[in-house]
Write a structure and sequence with these properties.
The complex is a heterodimer of chains A (343) and B (331). With 343 residues, chain A is α/β, with parallel strands linked by helices. Chain A is built from 13 helices and 11 strands. An 8-stranded mixed sheet of chain A has the order 5-6-7-3-8-9-11-10, sandwiched between helices. The two termini of chain A are 42 Å apart. By secondary structure, chain B is α/β, with parallel strands linked by helices. Chain B has one domain (8-316): P-loop containing nucleotide triphosphate hydrolases (Rossmann fold, 3-Layer(aba) Sandwich). Chain B is built from 11 helices and 12 strands. The chains are: A alpha/beta (343), B alpha/beta (331).
Amino acid sequence: MTGPAPQPMIAAEEVGIHFPVGRGRVLKAVDGVSLAVMKGETFGVIGESGSGKTTLGRAMVCLEKPSAGRIRHAGTDPYALSSRELRRHRRQYQIVFQDPNAALNPRMSIIDSIREPMDVAAELPRAEREERARALMERVGLSPDFARRYPHELSGGQKQRVCIARVLTLRPSVIVCDEAVSALDVSIQADILNLLAELQQEFGLTYVFITHNLGVVAHVSDRIAVMYLGRIVELGRTEDVIERPVHPYTEALLSAEPVALPADLRPNKRIVLEGELPSPVSPPSGCRFRTRCRFVQPLCAEQEPPWRESGAGHWSACHFAGELHLMSNAELHPHRNVAERQP
Amino acid sequence: MAAAEPLLDVRDLGIAFRTGGGMVQVTREVSFSIAPGEAVGLVGESGCGKTVTGLALMGLLPRATSTVSGQVLLDGENLVGMAPRDFRRRRGSKISMIFQEPMSALDPVFTIGEQISETLRTHHPVSRKEARERGIEALAKVGIPEPTLRYDSYPHQLSGGMRQRAMIAIAIVCEPRLLIADEPTTALDVTVQAQIVDVLGDLCSRLGMAMLFITHDLGLVAETCSRLVTMYAGEVIEQGAIDDVLRRPRHPYTSGLLRSLPALAERKSRLPAIAGRVPARGEIPPGCRFRPRCGFAEPPCEAEQPLHAIPPAGQVRCCRHDQIALAGVLS
């Protein structure tokens, strides 16, 4: 290491987010999560419903206050700020949601929706706000004709472009994309992913990409965190996690993803997880994945697996990390190798 | 496959809806067939007409506001224009359907068991006791643990995956010849999706049931179906054996869909998206409907496009199909 390590844009330290669910019971949607999102990277969070990925994403932009641990933004503790300072600070940390219909006010015209964050901030003169809103509208690929139209006149992809233009108006440094392309058709999804990649270059953005879609997260992310029942079970560089998973849950997720390939190039073995996601109100003792794990041992019920580094920057929480014979990428995704060999 | 007598033969199916501005043609000339025990994938983006096609096959489009033309032959019997009373006898027993959102398809005030036995007792003169036995059997067939217990559960007591299994159980309890599955796993997680897809595949092979799998996910079609039918703006634009189409699509739209999948692209690369968007109902261009978005469009594309045969069993609606080299999943 030379020089001081750069401050992560988002640092989560043992973050827990707990919701009371009545009769004294507590749902720990996020439980003891630590991670660091570095400047300029795309950090992917993947997990199934109930894994806590959305709650974690909301905590990253101060929409959910951690019940335990803390979140730091580039060294600053946002909750140590006065409410006035926090309002100003959080402009740097924006979020794009899955459903643009719910995110846009149906009674506001497109240009008004895009300009609204600047109107609330009230820092620029009106004419300049209008100009920036129009420029961004064009930048995200919407024709100026849309300015005076309303959300119901736009397609899903166009509405998502409006949401993206809107979060860009305050010149954020971090954007959390929570299933931002999940509701879109594949061709539109490809368009929006291309747009987000261009904007990242242009504005030097840091992204947190939360999704259940493995194809999307593997395509855009530099690093990936895999969540299960409120915990991160594996974290590492995308190629490591995708090609050499060390946690059995990651292996199962990779194996469950259907791939559009001819039969002879598809994985012939598939791991289908047995059973259901346990209730997050009373998670299993020890390793939370043990009830569905094909390698389960008595130790898994007795002790919580330690968070260990198995390769450079490749972390996981499994008692037997590195010792299990997990299906390799070549077995899970033979096409990646085959495709490279094509002339 | 082509040799077997088709179980379902859809010929020139056209669907029109009555709107304030007159009749609007939603699909036209939709033709495809399904052999007994075969699984066929019907794909396309939102608004291409795949769901209404499924609803038309089930006779579920409202008669007052829609018209269906052409023929739907199930075991040689035309379902289009069949009297509602006759259709009711076939729906649920010979042809069944499952939907994307199991919670809105199940009735929250009846137990799973009541909903299964309702279907069974509508079509077969069985006693309550026997209906219960066969209902529990159906729940076991779709992989529901403790089926005896679950038979008396209400839908809200089940998880999303279990509800979808329960809905499949209702659909298959009469052992239909054809199951129409409309985005049955879209609302589910991938690991649950894998379980449901296994159940459906297993039912097809064990019961010899045919399936029309309606989805936008080409990966799912690759895993579950032997043939693919692609729709665009209300028309069938390509069909063929799934592996042939994946390797070598003949229509620029199918090729575009395959190429825009991030899972198959090089990491971090720019995805080859399809420019433009699906035309709205009133804006469908004459000639090839994909022409405004197509990189290969030439003057001949402005003419009406017939289907061209692609041996051995494929079809494509593109006049330039033998002049252009299209990328598939491996190129």
